[in-house]
Design brief:
Blueprint (H helix, E strand, L loop, with lengths): L18 H11 L2 H14 L3 E3 L36 H13 L12 H17 L7 H10 L5 H13 L22 H15 L11 H7 L8 H10 L1 H5 L3 H8 L3 H11 L22 E5 L5 E5 L7 E3 L1 H8 L5 H38 L1 H6 L9 H8 L3 H8 L3 E4 L2 E4 L7 E3 L5 E3 H14 L8 H10 L6 H10 L5 H4 L8
Organism: Neorhodopirellula lusitana
InterPro entries: RNA_pol_sigma_54, RNA_pol_sigma_54_core-bd, RNA_pol_sigma_54_DNA-bd, RpoN_core-bd_sf
Keywords: DNA-binding, DNA-directed RNA polymerase, Nucleotidyltransferase, Sigma factor, Transcription, Transcription regulation, Transferase
Length: 498
Amino acid sequence: MRMSVGLHARQSQVQKLAPRMIQSMEILQMHALALQERIEQEMNENPLLEQVTGDPLSPDEGDDEAPSKDARSENEKELVVDNDHDNKDDFERLSNMDSELPSTFDDSFRQSANRMSEEADRRHDMMANAQSRPESLNDFLLHQLAELDIHDDVEQIAERIISTLNASDGGYLRTPIADMLPPGHSKEDLALAEEALQIVQSLEPTGIAARDLSECLILQLDPKLPHFEQLQTLIRFHLNDLAENRLPQIAKKTGFSIEDIQELREDLHLLNPKPGAAFLETYVPNVTPDIILEQDDDGEYRVRLDDDRVPNLFISEYYRKRLQASDCSAEEREFIKQKINGAQWLIDSIEQRRSTLTKVAEAIVEHQKRFLDEGPEAIEPLKMQQIADKVGVHVTTVSRAVDDKWIQTPRGILPLRRFFVGGTQTEDGEDVAWDTIRLKLQELIDKEDKSKPYSDETLVDELRNAGMTVARRTVTKYRKKMGIPSSRKRRDWSLNST
């Protein structure tokens, strides 16, 4: 085999996105609050951007500041959305603006006093509204420990034990006691460590610092319970059998009746297998809808973009006049041109976002009208490509438009992605969404005979009888996702204890 080294010319086509086009896509992907923050940042960095203040419909306000649309040049005019096309001319104009003017310049302009004051007020409000840090599991235990009258050596080991506990792990003690002592420790040191562990385990929440699940549950048992000994027996020796619903085996080994075992299992369900998890810091975001869906008097759905928080922007008239002034230096003129370019691109990108998001939402609502009228069981299969074809944009544009966006509907506030679901076809060729199949699966299991629960194969047959052809592995996958145990675990042994 001969090998050679040389230079070869090859022609290839590579698609590259201009930085401004990337910015436009980023703005489309933002939800309203993120867009508001982005606009505030741009206004801080670009002195040519101004915000319409007061009532925009009032003839006495804003007339001296906001420029008229007719006075703008070709590159500064507002984006006109054409519902019959994909706005290719607008994006081409934006791309030309990006290539004609420089992308970097030394911005030496300082913020005005009013803008600096507004930013300071906004930061103050953010600090005032910030949530205080919740008490951690370790702090909660240390505060209890400090109130106890115990020996210093025991307290130090107890603090060491507490430091190893993690709320995300449920508050279990995963480090051996001996590893918390110095090398060459004595039996007396180990006894102190065991004493320290018992003290930590006596703190709230009950069951904390357990070394395994059995110890955690036993720590939570009250010795005054009428079935304390039986509960201990089940916890120490039969937890796996309980988890697998092997009640006859437990009855055979313990002599307990099936009915007694079921009652004891209900008592065990009241215990907390992860007592430390209550101290997990869970972040629950405030959902603010970007789109409002309302019904008119005729029952027709109307889509309205809820962007009242997004300010209306325009380019400062002062800098427009400065650009035409005779005493404007070449450096100043280049700076103003660059800032006009950035400001106009931002304004056009926001308008393009409004248009795209509105058209995408309208197409989704039109396709999922039955879901909005009748509920989740009537949802239709829908792919993003279908909406992209209907709106006349690329599928990635639809993906960015619906990302992290919420819509307020008569059925509550829902993420836009909720309306996109896969599906299959019935024997009659009708499309059925997977959500509909899951609801039917839940209905079948709720109505089954618990003495003889449906196997996955039987569920396939029952779904087929309902006109839904689904593979067994699909039934198994959705059953597990829905948190439904297997047929053996769903069996109620008290109904056929003989």
